[in-house]
Structure formats: structure tokens, C-alpha cells
Amino acid sequence: MSKQNKAHGSGKMVREVLENAVSKVATELYPFVKIPMPKNFRGKIKFESSKCIGCKLCMRDCPSDAIKIVKVGDKRFQAEFDLAKCIYCAQCVDSCMKDALVNSAEFELASLTRDALKIVYPAKPVSAVPVVNAAVADTAVKQQVVEQQKNDKPSAEQK
């Protein structure tokens, strides 16, 4: 390489250094400043057990066998995710007909143990709706009908 080419190359480098010394910083301040994720970002999968019907399409479609749906009661299901196996392809989210699985923007999932990457989303507890005895319900309905009939009949004063 000639002396002329060396001088020309170092001049470009000095110019580049000086331009970058006065320009805006090109890097992000992550992790101190969180970066917003795009709308359809494929992060950690979330499970809404109240929407799950137990069809298990998500299990069948998962290429890495990272999800298991377990029946825990009558029309109640829990999901078990192994995030160490998950490849975050969101195939399970796409195949869920009831939208029980959704993508989240959470992506900071580093852990020191594999067990911490196994997540269980428990089934929602059975709602505490009081069960009404049929005989009591019939009596209450009869009382409402009698009261309605009393209100519908014109009294002797109105005639």
C-alpha cells in the first residue's frame, strides 16, 4: 500500500470520528429506559382460563410442545407453559378459537433455573353463585304473579 493511500484512509477515519463526536447518540439507554414493543409483539403468552373450552388445539399446534391444557373441573381448565421450550412463534395464539391465549409485550424472561420458566395459569375458581332451591324459586315466582295480578285488577273505587 502506498503512502498516499494510507494518508487518504486515515483522513476518512478522523472525519468520521469528529462527525460522530458531535452527533446524537445512536444507542438506546436500555434497560434503564424501557422501549415500547410493537402492537403484535410475540412475547410471553398469557392465558385467560375463563375463555378456554378445553379443545386443546393450542397443544396440538405447538411445534415445541411447550403448552399443556389440564382439565381441573367441570368446564374449568388450567394451562401449563414451559417457557424454556417455547419458541414464541405464537402458533398457539393463532389457533385458539376463543382467544384464551394472548401475546404480551413481556420479553425479559431470563432466569437462573429452568423451574422458574415453568408457569401454571390456574383455572378461575367457581363463582360463588347461590344455588336456589326449586321449591323456593317456584314460591317466589308465584308471589310475584299474585302481586302482578293484584296491580292489574282495577279496584272497586276506580270503577
Give an account of the 3D structure.
The chain has 159 residues and is of the alpha+beta class. 31% of the residues lie in helices and 15% in strands. It has helices spanning 3-22, 57-61, 91-95, 134-152; strands at residues 45-47, 67-73, 76-82, 101-103, 118-121.
Beta strand count: 5
Strand order of the largest sheet: 2-3-5
How many separate helices?
4
Largest sheet: 3 strands, antiparallel
Q: Helical proportion?
A: 25-40%
Mean pLDDT score = 82
Run of helices and strands: HEHEEHEEH
Strand content: 15-25%
**Helix-and-strand structural type:** alpha+beta
Overall radius of gyration: 32 Å
N-C termini distance: 121 Å
Low-confidence stretches: 128-134, 155-159
The coarse silhouette is elongated
Chain-wise SSE layout:
Layout: H1 3-22, E1 45-47, H2 57-61, E2 67-73, E3 76-82, H3 91-95, E4 101-103, E5 118-121, H4 134-152
Antiparallel strand pairs: 1-4, 2-3, 3-5
Keywords:
disordered C terminus, elongated, 3-stranded antiparallel β-sheet, alpha+beta
Task: Please sum up the structure shown.
The protein is 31% helix and 15% strand.
